[in-house]
């Protein structure tokens, strides 16, 4: 079993690095951690970086999870290979680009590129945000799934992920006490379905709603409140159609023995208890 300790970073290809950088700093509210040749790194919390935009195909979208021990990479590689997932060991220069000590790369059954990294860098510099969006950190990803049952089985049998709740057949998966760190949503094609940052309060959600709307950022869902995690939320569109979410107040499952996963309807009321309707393909039948 592969123990995922945390979600670490996402890497997104872009055809417009300057435009993506403008969005990430001025609108989303991240800090530039570093500008490198052909890429820009952003921080959202205590880590050195949690997002990297690089010049390339916007279809190149990678999510990385941290593992606790270097030996876990070898064990994970052997297990994944035995299950028919080809694994590639990152080179030293690729690891340096990701600011990690060592990593492996593979694809989940849908074809989503996944990395597992050991010793991702933390930062000596405090995150303060280019604008006051109230971000407290990078928290979860939605992943596209071409077969929800198959992919739920992959994540829950091959890794430590456990189902917290389901919306229709879409599972929200936790790897620690946070209600979910990975969510799977139906889609014919692979990719990151959304990227979540936690913000401090519901006021931050509402302030950002006004701020982003005033700047013609396309709102795609909310403000609203998830019945699942009970978090208040706002989803909006970033560069090249990527959906970003702010949420606040995500449930923590402190006592696993007392928790039973719940079934919600795959319809707007399963996604929002305030009545907002998603304008997000993967959240609609
Ligand atoms: O209702 C759909 C989404 C649920 C949640 C949540 O419960 O917080 C998400 O953050 C999500 O998967 O987008
Ligand atoms: Fe989310």
From TrEMBL:
The keyword Transmembrane helix does not apply. It holds the Pfam family Glyoxalase. Signal peptide: none annotated. The keyword Cytoplasm does not apply. Keywords: Dioxygenase, Metal-binding, Oxidoreductase. Residues 6-119, 137-249 form the VOC domain. InterPro entries: Fosfomycin_Res_Enzymes, Glyas_Bleomycin-R_OHBP_Dase, Glyas_Fos-R_dOase_dom, VOC_core. GO terms for molecular function: dioxygenase activity; metal ion binding. It comes from the Bacteria. PANTHER family: FOSFOMYCIN RESISTANCE PROTEIN FOSX, LYASE, PUTATIVE-RELATED-RELATED. This is 2,3-dihydroxy-p-cumate/2,3-dihydroxybenzoate 3,4-dioxygenase.
């Amino acid at each position: 079993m592969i123990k995922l300790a945390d979600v670490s970073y996402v890497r997104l290809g872009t055809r417009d690095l300057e435009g993506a950088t403008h969005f990430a700093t001025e609108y989303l509210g991240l800090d530039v951690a570093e500008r490198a040749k052909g890429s820009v790194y952003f921080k959202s919390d205590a880590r050195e970086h949690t997002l990297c935009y690089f010049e390339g195909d916007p279809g190149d979208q990678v999510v990385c999870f941290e593992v606790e021990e270097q030996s876990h990479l070898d064990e994970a590689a052997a297990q994944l290979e035995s299950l028919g997932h080809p694994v590639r060991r990152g080179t030293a220069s690729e690891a340096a680009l990701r600011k990690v000590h060592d990593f492996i790369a593979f694809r989940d059954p849908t074809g989503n590129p996944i990395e597992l990294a050991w010793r991702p860098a933390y930062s000596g510099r405090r995150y303060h945000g280019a604008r006051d969006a109230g971000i407290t950190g990078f928290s979860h990803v939605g992943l596209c799934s071409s077969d929800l049952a198959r992919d739920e089985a992959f994540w829950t049998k091959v890794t430590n992920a456990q189902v917290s709740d389901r919306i229709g057949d879409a599972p929200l998966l936790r790897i620690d006490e946070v209600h979910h760190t990975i969510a799977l949503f139906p889609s014919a094609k692979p990719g990151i379905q959304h990227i979540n940052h936690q913000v401090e309060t519901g006021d931050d959600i509402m302030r950002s709603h006004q701020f982003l709307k005033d700047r013609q950022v396309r709102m795609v869902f909310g403000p609203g409140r998830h019945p699942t995690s009970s978090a208040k939320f706002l989803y909006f569109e970033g560069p090249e159609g990527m959906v970003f979410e702010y949420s606040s107040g995500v449930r923590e499952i402190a006592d696993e023995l007392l928790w039973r996963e719940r079934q919600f309807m795959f319809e707007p009321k399963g996604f929002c208890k305030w009545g907002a309707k998603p304008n997000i393909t993967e959240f609609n039948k």
